[in-house]
Model the fold of this input.
Amino acid sequence: MAQIAIDNILDSLNSTIVCLDRNQRVCYVNSTAEALFSASSSALLGRAFDQLFSQVEPNTITSNLPDIGSKALTEHGAQIKLANGQSIIADYSIYPLDDSQPEAITLVEIRPIDRQLQIAREEASQMHNQVSQQFARGMAHEIQNPLSGIRGAAQLLEKEITQSSMKEYTDVIISEVDRLQALIKNMLGPNTKMNKKPVNILEILEHIRRLLLAAETDTVTVHRDYDPSIPEINADRDQLIQAFLNIAQNAVQALEGIGEITFKTRIERQFTIGQTSHPLVIKIDIIDTGKGIPSELSNTIFLPMVTSKARGSGLGLPIAQEIISRHGGLIRPESLPSGTMFSVFLPLDLP
Done:
C-alpha cells in the first residue's frame, strides 16, 4: 500500500524521475519520464541510461554520471539532446542513494525549463487576450443600442418615403446595420451556459471532417491520425464543434483552395495548463499545408478583429480560444516548415 502511494506521488510530479542500478540501467521511471522519452515504462526499464540520449551529440548528464561519487550534482540550463531527436533546456540533479540497497543506487531528476517558460508565456498571453476580449465585448455592448436606434429610424423613414428610388437608401442602411449587428453578435462570443455531457472527441472531429468535405472541392484532402483508445470527456458538444470548426475553417482558408489538412489525436501525460497540472490531457492537432502564420501576427492571432485574410472577420480563433478556455483547455499555434499546426489540449479527468 505504501509503495502504491509513493508511486502515485512520483507520477504526480512535473519533474522526470529516473532511478538507476549499479550498472547504470534504468530500474524505475515515473509517468513524466515516459512522456519525456516518448516510451512506456516497460520499454525503458532495463535500458542503459546513456541510450536514452543522443549518441552523436555530447550530454553532460551522461558524462557526469560516472563521477557522481557520494555527493549530489546539479547543473542549471543544460542543453540535453534525447535519443528521439528532441532537444531541451533543463536543470538536472543526480543524487547518490544508499549503495547498500540491492536495486537503485542513483536517482536522476530532470526539470525542463523551456517548458516552464512556455507555460509562463501561454499564461501571460491568455490573460492579455482575455483583457482584449473583455474590452471588445464592452465596445460591442455600447454599439448595439445605437445600431438598434439607427435601424428603427431607417424603418420609420422608409414608411414616409413615397419615391421607390429613395427607398434604396433606407434598404442599404438597414442591411448594413443588420450586418454590423451580426458581426457584434459574433464578437460577443458564446454567452450560453455550457451543457456538459460525455462526448467523444473523435466523433466531433469526424462531424467536422464531413462538413469540410461537403463544402470544399476535391483539391482539399482531410487526413485522419486518431488514437482510438481516447475515452469520452465531459464537455459541451455544440460548443466544441464550433471551436474545432473555426480552427478547421481557418486551416482551409490558409490552403487557398488546394492542400492537405490532418486531424491528429493523442494522449499526453503531466501537462500543465495555467496553474493546474493535469495527469492526462487529450491533444488534438489540426495541421494544414498552407503558408503558415505571418510573423507579424504570431503574437496576436487570438485577439478579436486580427486577421491576414481580406474577407476574414478575425473572430473565429478568439471564439475558439474562449470555448476551449471555458473547458479548462488551451490552444497552442505553431508554424511548421510546410504549414501551421493548431494544438488543442483538453483535460482528461478520469474517475
The first strand starts at residue 16 and ends at 20.
